[in-house]
Amino acid sequence: MLRIHDDFSKAAGYWYRTHGIHISGVAIFPGHEDAGRQASGFFSWSDIMKDIINAQQLDISRILDKLTTILKYKDLEAVQGEV
The organism sits in which domain of life (predicted)? Predict the structure, then answer.
Protein backbone atom coordinates (compact mmCIF):
# COMPACT_ATOMS: atom_id res chain seq x y z
CA MET A 1 0.00 0.00 0.00
CA LEU A 2 2.79 2.42 0.83
CA ARG A 3 4.39 1.79 -2.54
CA ILE A 4 1.09 2.75 -4.18
CA HIS A 5 1.18 6.05 -2.27
CA ASP A 6 4.78 6.72 -3.32
CA ASP A 7 4.29 5.79 -6.99
CA PHE A 8 1.07 7.74 -7.31
CA SER A 9 2.50 10.79 -5.54
CA LYS A 10 5.54 10.85 -7.84
CA ALA A 11 3.33 10.70 -10.93
CA ALA A 12 1.01 13.38 -9.53
CA GLY A 13 4.04 15.52 -8.74
CA TYR A 14 5.20 15.34 -12.34
CA TRP A 15 1.83 16.53 -13.66
CA TYR A 16 1.66 19.32 -11.10
CA ARG A 17 5.20 20.58 -11.84
CA THR A 18 4.88 20.35 -15.62
CA HIS A 19 1.22 21.29 -16.19
CA GLY A 20 -0.07 22.79 -12.92
CA ILE A 21 -2.65 20.01 -12.50
CA HIS A 22 -3.64 19.19 -8.91
CA ILE A 23 -4.01 15.42 -8.68
CA SER A 24 -5.10 13.60 -5.55
CA GLY A 25 -6.09 10.03 -4.87
CA VAL A 26 -7.33 7.50 -2.39
CA ALA A 27 -5.97 4.05 -1.60
CA ILE A 28 -8.41 1.85 0.30
CA PHE A 29 -7.88 -1.59 1.76
CA PRO A 30 -11.35 -2.90 2.67
CA GLY A 31 -9.99 -5.98 4.47
CA HIS A 32 -9.65 -6.59 8.18
CA GLU A 33 -5.86 -6.60 8.60
CA ASP A 34 -4.68 -3.58 10.58
CA ALA A 35 -1.57 -2.96 8.47
CA GLY A 36 -3.59 -2.64 5.27
CA ARG A 37 -6.24 -0.48 6.89
CA GLN A 38 -3.62 1.85 8.38
CA ALA A 39 -2.05 2.35 4.96
CA SER A 40 -5.39 3.36 3.48
CA GLY A 41 -5.80 7.03 2.95
CA PHE A 42 -5.76 10.11 0.82
CA PHE A 43 -2.63 11.34 -0.88
CA SER A 44 -1.60 14.20 -3.11
CA TRP A 45 1.49 16.00 -4.33
CA SER A 46 -0.31 19.32 -4.31
CA ASP A 47 0.43 21.42 -1.22
CA ILE A 48 -2.88 23.21 -1.76
CA MET A 49 -4.81 19.93 -1.56
CA LYS A 50 -2.82 18.89 1.51
CA ASP A 51 -3.60 22.24 3.16
CA ILE A 52 -7.32 21.83 2.43
CA ILE A 53 -7.30 18.42 4.09
CA ASN A 54 -5.16 19.51 7.04
CA ALA A 55 -7.49 22.47 7.63
CA GLN A 56 -10.31 19.90 7.77
CA GLN A 57 -12.19 21.63 4.98
CA LEU A 58 -12.92 18.11 3.74
CA ASP A 59 -13.95 15.36 6.13
CA ILE A 60 -11.55 12.78 4.73
CA SER A 61 -12.19 10.29 7.54
CA ARG A 62 -15.91 10.24 6.78
CA ILE A 63 -15.29 9.93 3.04
CA LEU A 64 -12.82 7.06 3.56
CA ASP A 65 -15.23 5.28 5.91
CA LYS A 66 -18.08 5.51 3.40
CA LEU A 67 -15.93 4.37 0.49
CA THR A 68 -14.52 1.46 2.52
CA THR A 69 -18.03 0.33 3.51
CA ILE A 70 -19.22 0.50 -0.10
CA LEU A 71 -16.20 -1.48 -1.30
CA LYS A 72 -16.71 -4.17 1.36
CA TYR A 73 -20.32 -4.68 0.28
CA LYS A 74 -19.42 -4.66 -3.42
CA ASP A 75 -16.70 -7.26 -2.75
CA LEU A 76 -19.24 -9.42 -0.88
CA GLU A 77 -21.74 -9.10 -3.72
CA ALA A 78 -19.09 -10.14 -6.23
CA VAL A 79 -18.15 -13.21 -4.17
CA GLN A 80 -21.80 -14.21 -3.76
CA GLY A 81 -22.33 -13.82 -7.49
CA GLU A 82 -19.50 -16.31 -8.16
CA VAL A 83 -21.11 -19.03 -6.03
Answer: Eukaryota
